[in-house]
Amino acid sequence: MLFARHLVNTGKVLVPNIRTMASQSGPLVDLSVDKDGIAVLTMNRPPVNSLNLELLQEMSKSLDEVAKNKTKAMILTSSSPTVFSAGLDIMEMYKPDLKRAEQFWTTLQDVWLKLFGSNFITAAAINGHAPAGGCLLSMSCEYRAMVSGKYAIGLNETALGIVAPTWFMDTMCHTIPIRQAEYALTTAKMFSVEEALKVGLIDEAATDKADAIEKCKQFIKKFDKIPPLARAVTKQKIRQAPLARLQKNRQQDLEEFLGFLKNPVIQQGLEMYIQALKQKAAK
Predict the structure, then answer these.
(1) Labelling 118: which of 103, 111, 219, 279 has CA 20 to 30 A away?
(2) Range 166-177 average pLDDT
């Protein structure tokens, strides 16, 4: 992963589209399985499911549980009424404890490897905004239904002076045509629901969360007459190159992330963003 200097605009340093979070009480994820053997994994870190270490750890454990129990499929969704996931938690990167930061990034790698490379069927019921890491999670699934409305989805890292990790790019290139992915990544394109549907970033638009989940279940039913092993191996072979690339370069990817955190310019930008959030909250 390469990180450039953050862009400067009217004296403000732009930083990732992520927010600080209130303290959490209760489970960070909910995992349930219906009578048809379909698991629903719900992210539950209000208000916007920012991805911190603990949420990622719970997601990783849940993915292991789905695989262990040989559940045939999993639907990923959110408990928030307007946000699927806002991406990485800024507090994991601001003045970090480097041991925790290392664990945070390697856990994010784990979640992607397990989700993108799963042998079970995966679908995302996207019930709100899905920038950056939220977009990554949804693209890592095989199918996406997104609730209609004034929501946006995309990888917007370049607008923030950041070059997304190769595995983020690989995921987008496996979701939409490479030319469209290149344009979206270089311009930091955030897609409306209609635009996402047109380019193939999502597969269907839904009226609400329940409808999105139902559309995911209808997608899963398409495989009822397909031998599970043949389906799983075919999927994993198609996705083999990106998975192998990260596996081979995990340490280098981690070191680049830690180098980003150690950059004083980056830390200054994060501090300015946090102060702006506090001022906004005080109004």
Answers:
(1) 103
(2) 97
